[in-house]
Amino acid sequence: MLILIPPSETKRAGGRLRPLDVARLALPSLTVQREAVVDALVSLAADEDEAARVLRLSASQRAEIAANAQLRTAPTMAAIDRYTGVLYDALDAASFSPAARAWAGRHVLIHSAPLGPVAALDAIPAYRLGASASLPALPPLTRVWGHAVTGALAGASPTFVLDMRSEAYAALGPVPASVPAVYLRIVEERDGGAVRALNHFNKHAKGALVRRLAHDRPRVSSLAGFVRWADAAGIRVREGAPGELQLFV
Known about the structure:
This protein is an alpha/beta fold. The chain contains ten helices and ten strands. The chain has one domain (2-248). It is 38% helix and 16% strand. The strands form two sheets. Strands 1, 3, 4, 6, 7, 8, 9 and 10 form an eight-stranded mixed sheet that branches. Strands 2-5 form a two-stranded antiparallel ribbon. Helix 6 (98-107) packs across helix 9. This is Peroxide stress protein YaaA. It holds the Pfam family H2O2_YaaD.
């Protein structure tokens, strides 16, 4: 099983690992795209006003431009530790056992805007770039990443993909049709049986789900296998629209 999750706008600063080496990241077929986006971000950071405009930064956020300027030289940390926010607070990777971290490293990809999907334990620097940004030196990110990410996922040959990305990040690289996959939606059941999709709480539920998976480390290779594990774990899921799975909270 391969799990795709979104990044977060908020990130921890610093790190203790060596600077970014794109050749060491998961899905190495994406190296050309990664180099191009990193180069574009570093170049953009040289003009603070333009960077603030392109990245839609407020005055208080301008300090984040410096992180982009140092993408190739700044210390790094594991991607699963870099991100903060609701999903990553619920995930609480800092409390993972070594076995849980190793499992996440093998099964979880975090889809970043400048580097594409990276493994949970891949070493990455802090940065500022969202899925909807358009860098002056490049085509839209959907064109930079789309077919390349889809091809890289196909090349990884996963037996089953659980896609938890937001729709903006899913658009940066749809799962190939050749790979068995399901898109996870977080929902709640209202009075009368009506189902409503959740927004804020969907991030918490996704983080908690990945945490439980890393703790249990199930051997899941299909949607049916995931559903069996969820049922045994007391997690309520059911198939929704074609290609989608609903998780009830």
